């Protein structure tokens, strides 16, 4: 009996244990399956995390690694990790998994486009393997850098120089103002034409004929169109305004009180016209008339009146505000040509005293200090923007040119080399600056315009700076030209040649072309190749007389 009862108890106990095991076990498993574990992430871009959510200058295939605290449900990756370009278009990515799906390596299927901004987002749709949520979603900005592949087929150096001249020439030829033939201030200027930029355009036309981009007859007709317009356009004691309406010839105010004569812009215009006068030396009626018209326009500029009673020249005069701006033209800057043309005038000349006291400031424009290993004869510390060594020397040949204050070949070469050496040293650590990517001068910048220089470095490179320095730094300028064309050509090579400027820090590429930046590219490349424009202006008898009067000595006078 006892044995039977014990057996029953054992059986009942076994049944109970089995019951508890069965149902208790099921309950425990149910609880486990309903628990989910959240996850968090950390990441590196190319092996580092810079402590921010912005990464710049990336290669076409950056190495992107996400590390999670829990394994990831791979089925959620396609919607949970998204790469989009700046238009919002999704870019296909390829994930690769490590460490039991706790590490995901992300790679774009195709190379990122150069200098393009992308957003890489890891969002709440990404889940852990147990269904947990991502507790720290991120949006990472990825900015690609240069794509080192050539954007255009390689050609010879001479072919490349010709191509750049020809493409840039289109700004003045194809885009010249239809009524006046003058150069528009910039590619968005409508009817606003520029007097100084049209002087550059006139020289560009001469170079264009020389390079067989256009015929001599067509070039002659365009220059005569410009001269006919200038004969009736507003003048202020013989000087033109900075900006002119290309249809009406009426002055357009450059600033609040600058609505009259601009003597510096007028000098840049006259240098171009005198260069054309020397080029069109034929005996035909058309070329004879053009020469006579240009001589008349030059002789009508009242250079001496712009002294305003002082031993210096004054930049502006307004019929409404008189001399209120009161800006004296003093060196060292881009205005040497103004004093040369004033001294050379047979009708309204200035004496040497005005050059010495007004321009040279009795020697105060001298420098003599050394910057980045190069001694600078004249001007401000580190040389200033490079256009100071370009504008006057589009027609004045600096080679072997000296006066009481400087050797101008030494001056211009030193200025260019200081600018180059500064960009190579790159003390501000701007992205992209190098021996192949250099040149600081006045240009457009993001949101505005400035005169860039080593003392005012905004991270913006202007192609005109290096390319218009070809006569001074031929090796360094050629390296820059090849970089601009072959490596950045998909971004900066456009209908009228190179765009005005670019910044590789937060990649920005101007859409603009400016007459005063495009012109020196054509002209100075031509002077580097043939000295054409130098030879023409320096052959003018007025220039020979005026420069000798100011004390200049040159084998080219």
TrEMBL record:
Domain Glycoamylase-like: 327-540
Organism: Pedobacter helvus
Listed Gene3D superfamilies: 1.50.10.140, 2.60.40.1220
Swiss-Prot/TrEMBL keywords: Signal
UniProt cross-references to InterPro entries, sorted A to Z: Cu-Rt/internalin_Ig-like, Glycoamylase-like_cons_dom, SbsA_Ig
Phylogenetic placement of the source organism: Bacteria, Pseudomonadati, Bacteroidota, Sphingobacteriia, Sphingobacteriales
Domain SbsA Ig-like intervals: 56-137
Protein name per Swiss-Prot or TrEMBL: Glucoamylase family protein
Pfam entry (one): Glycoamylase
